[in-house]
Amino acid sequence: MSLVVDLFMVLLILTSAVWTVLARDRRDAVIAFIVLGLQLSLVWMRLMAVDVALTEAAVGGGATGLVLLRACARLQPVEAEGRLPGLRAQIAAGLLCAGVGVALAAVILAPAAPAPSLAPAVAAHMDEVGLKNPVTVVLLAYRALDTLLEKVVLVLGLIGVWALAPDLFWGGRPASLRAASPSGTLTFLARVLPPVGVLIGVYLVWNGADHPGGTFQGGTVLAAMWLLVMMAGLGELPETRALRLRRLVAVGPALFIAVGLAGFWMADGFLSYPPEYAKPIIVAVEVALALSIAVILGLMVAGPAAKEPER
Amino acid sequence: MSLLLDLFTIVAVSSGLFFFLAGTVGFLRFPDTLTRLHALTKADNLGLGLIVLGLLPRCPDLVSALKLVAIWALVQLGGATASQLIAEFARRGGGR
Fold first, then answer.
1. pLDDT tens-digit readout, A16-60
2. Per-residue pLDDT tens digits for A76-106
3. A269-294 b/e with 16+ CB inside 10 Å = b?
């Protein structure tokens, strides 16, 4: 019975994936991609990987989908002018994508036997960190360097987005997210939902120590609430040069690096924690990271500055 | 007692699934955007509501039961708002 369900899921996912690639209209492709993300999160649930499922739904489906939809809107005037990449560039892009796909398929379809696993080692040493969610233990204790670099990449990504702004606008506000004529329904949602949404975001971050959840999932929910308020026109986007905003962007990675350096004299080396303080340190880093992720994701959706900074 | 609860769960979840099926059929068969939205809201409200209702006796404690009800309420809010927004968009002539 469960095989039927699994096969059906595989069929659905393949359909969405093919639809994503073949859709003629760019916006249709993005919508198919969002659907694909939600279906993938269902598969992760069936594999009992709740943390991955939450991340896939929040980031893969939600946040990435929103960024891509904004990109579509920005590309519309370009498309109208008929400035599309040439045939040669299209073929090159297709070949590169196919190459990456084939390489990934080769790695997944021909795994080393037995598949290498560090899961027993992690399970054996869980108590030393003092958290109950093995995923958080791996992300913030055993593979903390990977997690740190992941967050630094996010900051670099935001700098990349900001760098698209013309010199004249550098430091100014991004283009307003507010709809031309904000609907009463949207305004209503933007007034009612954020208190609940912020609570859920904080809950996901706080819960991440012992149960599925964590910085990325919680941060994405917080970012969504911020964006909702902007879209309804209840708040305006801040100027990208605002010092407070930039501090929020940097606080997570900065605290993570500071904790890592402190490991040199408080524990065994970079990013290692003294065992008796491991849990409070990890929770503090997670809170700061969630704040930074929320602000970075919100700003990525907002895009580069599109107005001159006010004097 | 547990047999009664099992029966209750089976009946409620099955009715919920029926509304999801009906909503999907309506979504595929109804002629225009507004009626299709109408079909979908049945799946959101009644379908999910009945499934949550059927799962309530399965909850190990009160907190998980409240979480299920909260999920239903949030889906209600999200679904209702999204339908309103799509309907407004369609009425302004944006739909197909």
1. 999 998 888 888 999 999 999 999 999 999 988 888 899 899 888
2. 777 666 667 788 988 999 899 999 999 999 8
3. eebbbeeeebbebbbebbbbbbbbbb
B85 close contact with A: CB closer than 8 A: yes
Nearest CA to CA, how far is A227 from chain B (Å)? 15
User: Is B88 within 8 Å of A192 when comparing Cβ atoms?
Assistant: no
Q: Which of B75, B76, B81, B86 to mutate to test the interface with A (most CBs of A within 10 A)?
A: B81
Q: Taking an 8 Å Cβ-Cβ cutoff, which residues of chain A contact chain B?
A: 183, 185-186, 188-189, 192-193, 196
**Segments making up each domain of chain A, as ranges:** 1-81, 85-116, 119-311
Pairwise CB contact (< 8 Å): B84 & A192: no
Residue A47 three-state SS: coil
When mean pLDDT is compared across A59-63, A92-96, A191-195, A209-213, the lowest value belongs to A209-213
